Amino acid sequence: MGWEVVVSSKGQVTLPKDMREALDLRPGDQVVYSIIDGEVVLTPKNVDFNDLAGLLGKPPKGRATLEEIDETVSKAAGHNVVDTDDDQADAAA
Fold first, then answer.
1. Cβ atoms within 10 Å of 77's Cβ, excluding its own
2. Domain residue limits at 32
3. What is the dihedral of CA 80, 83, 88, 90, to 10 degrees?
4. What is the count of structural domains for the chain?
5. What is the pLDDT of residue 39?
6. 44 close to 25: Cβ distance less than 8 angstroms
7. Residue 52 belongs to some domain of the structure
8. pTM of the model
């Protein structure tokens, strides 16, 4: 599925409503733009970490701060796109 948007004179784009709904994006949510092989990949950062609490058990180095968690998520955003095989990449195009 693809969407065509126009870049404003200020370099801004508006995400189409159906795209926001497909990604479950709400006002105030953050997204990460990554450039992978010359293509822009948009990754939502709208995971509620409270929903994940305790999922992996106790951390080996103790509790992480919110800043450490945010930094880790920012570094990992878009990483899963790089690791996809060709069949999945073709399906996303």
1. 19
2. 17-86
3. 110
4. 1
5. 87
6. yes
7. yes
8. 0.49
